[in-house]
Amino acid sequence: MAKTEAEVLFEAVAAPLAYLSVELVYLKVNRAYERTTGRSREGLLGRSVAELFPGDEAGEEYLALLDSMERVLTDRETDIMAVHRHDVEEPGSPGVLRERYWNITNTPIFDEEGKIVGILNQPQEVTTFVRREPDSAEFPEERVETLEAHMLAQTSQLHEVNQRLRRAQVKERRVSDALRKAVQEQREAVADASHDLRGPLTGLLTRLQVALDDPDADPRETLLATLQDAERLGDIVGDLLELARLEAGVPADTEPVDLPVLVGGELVHLAPRKTVRTHLDVGVIVDASRVRLARLVGNLLANAERHAASRIEVAVLVRDRQAVLEVMDDGPGIPDPDKEAVFRRFYRRADARRLDPGGTGLGLPIARQIAESHGGTLQATDRPDDLPGACLTLRLPLHRP
Fold first, then answer.
1. What is the pTM of this model?
2. Whole-number pLDDT of residue 371
3. Count of alpha carbons within 13 Å of 302, Cβ hemisphere only?
4. Identical fold at 5-174 and 181-247?
5. CA dihedral in degrees (285, 290, 292, 294; nearest 10)?
C-alpha cells in the first residue's frame, strides 16, 4: 500500500519522532527514533510505554514520563521533560544498560474537531552536555543556559514538524472525504440509471410478450409502442454517454461563437409552442464548442417550455465582463431546496414528471457540465422581476481576440 504524504513526511524528518495513542501505545516511529533509542519499530509498535521500561515499571523514569504525557492530555499543551535520565541497553550486550540523558518533548495531536487523538514524542539526547565537566571558561549556570537554548531550538523544530504533519493530515482527510462523496454519488447515479432504464425495458418486453401471446394483436400498434420505448432507452443512454464524456473532461474543439445568433437558431429549431420574448444583444462572442453550446441552450429552452404556463423570456447580454444568457418562464418556479437539486442526475420534481413523463432528468445536469467545461456557471434562481416562474442563468467568459 502506498504511503500517504503525512507518513512520508513523518519518516523523512531528521529528528527522532514517535506517535502514541491517547492510551500511550506506540503507533508509529521513524527511522531517526530507532537509531536514537536503539529500539526497532517491530519492538515498539503496539506496545505501551509501561512495557518498554526495564525492571520496575513504577520507577522514577516511568513515573516522570507518565506524568508528562498525562499533563499533555489534561492541559492540551506541549510538555517538556528537561534532562531526563533513561538508560539504554548496550548494543550487543543484552541486559547491560548504558547511562543516557534526554530532553523529551511531548506534544498533543488534535483532529479537525479539536479532540486530542495522540501524542507526538521527541527525545533529544543530551548525555554529552550532562557529563561534561565544568572548566574555567564555563560555569554550571552557563551550562544550564546552553541546555535551555538547545531545548528551545528543538522545541521550535518540533512545532514546525507538528504543523506540517497537521496540514498533511487535513489535506489527506479532505481528499478522503472527496473520494467517499464521489463513490456515493456514483452509487446513486447507478441506482437512478437502473431505475430509469427499467421502465422502458419493462414496457418493451411486456408489449413483445403480449404480441407473441395474442396472434390477433395489431402488429403496427405493437411496433409503434415498442419503437417509443426503444427511443426513450436511446435518449437515456445517449444522455448518460454525453454526461460521462463531460465529467471525464473529454475535450472538444472550440471556436468563437456568436451567442445571440446561436440562441436565435435554437429558438427556430425548437419552435416552442409557448409565446417567446427575446432580448438578444448583438456581438456577444464566446469561445465554445458550437455543438455542445447548442445542446446547452436547447436543454434550457426545453426545460422552460416544459414548465412555462404561457410565456418564455430569453435574454443575451454582457454583464460584469461576462456573456450572460437568461432563460425565464412563468411557471410555478423552483423552491429554494430544489435550486441545486435540479442539477443532480435523474432528479425530477413531481410537476416535471407529470408534465413530461418521458423526460430523463439529465437535461440540466448536462447543461451545467457543459457550462463548467467552458469555464462558466449555470444557476437556477427566482425571476429578477419577482413574478412567478424560474430563471436559469448561464455565465461564460467573453471571447478574447
1. 0.50
2. 94
3. 20
4. no
5. 80
**Where does 181-247 sit in CATH, by number?**
1.10.287.130
Q: Are 291 and 383 in contact (CB under 8 A)?
A: no
Domain ranges of the chain: 5-174, 181-247, 255-397
Record the cell numbers describing residue 344, joined without a space: 443532480
- Grid coordinates in use for 111? 483532529
**C-alpha grid cell, residue 383:** 425571476
pLDDT tens digits for 127-146? 776 665 554 444 455 555 66
pLDDT, tens only, 87-102: 666 666 666 677 777 7
Residues in Cβ contact with 342 at an 8 Å cutoff, skipping those fewer than 6 apart: 334, 349, 364, 380
Count the helices and strands in the chain (H runs, E runs). Answer: 10, 14
Give me the residue label for grid cell 488534535.
110
Strands (E) in 48-160, as ranges, are 79-85, 88-89, 97-98, 101-110, 116-125
How is domain 255-397 classified at the CATH fold level?
Answer: Heat Shock Protein 90 (3.30.565)
